[in-house]
Design a protein that fits this description.
With 130 residues, the protein is mainly alpha-helical. 48% of the residues lie in helices and 9% in strands. Strands 1-2 form a two-stranded antiparallel sheet. Strand 1 (32-37) and strand 2 form a beta hairpin. The longest helix is centred in the N-terminal third of the chain and has 20 residues, at 2-21. The two termini are 41 Å apart. 0% of the residues are buried.
Length: 130
Amino acid sequence: MQQQIEDGDYILEKRKEKKKRKYLVSAPVLGHMYLLIKVHKKNFPGRAVVSQIDDPTYKICKILTDILNPIAVNGQSFVENSYDLKKTLEKIQVDKDDIQASFDVVALYPSIPIDKALDCVRERLQNDET
C-alpha cells in the first residue's frame, strides 16, 4: 500500500512537471523589433513590429490569445479581415444624403488606457459562459 501511495505521488509529481514544461521556452531569446515601412504615407514612416517567437513570454501569450480571442470574436465591432469588412459593408444601405468618412488612428495601441482595458477584459471574462 505504501508503495502504491509513493507511486501515485511520483505520477502526480511527473504530471505537474510535464504541465509546467509546456509553458517553458527551451532556448529563450529576447523579442526583437523591426520596422515595416508605410510606403503609401508621406515621408515613409515605419510601423514597429515586435516578434516574440522564442521570447520567454511567447507561450503564455499564445494561451492568453486562445482565451481572449473567442470573446473578441463575439464583440459587436469585431471585423475578422478585409473580406469580412467588405461583406458587412455590402449589407449597409447608403442614402443619397449620407456622407462617408474614414479616420486614420495614430498610435492606437499605446493610446489605450491599460487600467480601463483590464477592467473591460475582466468584466467580459466574468460574464462569459464558456
